[in-house]
Amino acid sequence: MQGKVLIVTGALGALGKVVAETASARGARVAGIDHAPSQVSATPERIEIGGVDLSDPAQAKTAVEAAAKHFGRLDAVINIAGGFAFESVGDGDIKTWQRLYALNVLTALNTSRAALPHLAASGTGRIVNIGATGALQAGSGMGPYAASKAGVHRLTEALANEWKGKVTVNAVLPSIIDTKANRADMPKADFSKWVTPQELAEVILFLASDAASGVTGALIPVGGRV
């Protein structure tokens, strides 16, 4: 990661913070983009761009261009921004489907589209998306979430084919991530079977590295202990 310039969306969330901090510790320069307000001042190594609705193409482009201007280039985009809701198909609200599509698919789409010219110019451009193992076979109550994450999977494959030879595009498919929020929601679960943010960050940053130059269009399950 030494010297690489990364955009991490959802950088103020449980997973985003770990990915951004780990990348920074390994010598990367990181632009964190989040819907929440920025928490730190910009430095030559780190910038946070807060208050951004990445489901809006114009806002996504403005944020990406700000990151590229600050660092002079972009080498990788890690699309972590997203959302979850547990809701049955028959009794649920159509607005949940629309909201999760916006949070999970449009955020990744808009950020990637805005960054692709910069990533292609890098020569080692990388996009890493966050899918879900739960989107491979949706269970009860998982319809809207699984459908939106399946959209992320197909987006990953389409971009990988369209930009083959210029930018690699892959996705990690976590099982349940061990976060405070998930522990609160599922207090009786066996947390030892969940994937930790650090474990997930290791796979994400490998895919964003030079070592992963031969991998593109891959959907990689992470945390299969559940």
Automatic annotation (TrEMBL):
InterPro entries: NAD(P)-bd_dom_sf, Sc_DH/Rdtase_CS, SDR_fam. PROSITE patterns: ADH_SHORT. Belongs to the short-chain dehydrogenases/reductases (SDR) family. This is NAD(P)-dependent dehydrogenase (Short-subunit alcohol dehydrogenase family). The lineage of its organism: Bacteria, Pseudomonadati, Pseudomonadota, Alphaproteobacteria, Hyphomicrobiales.
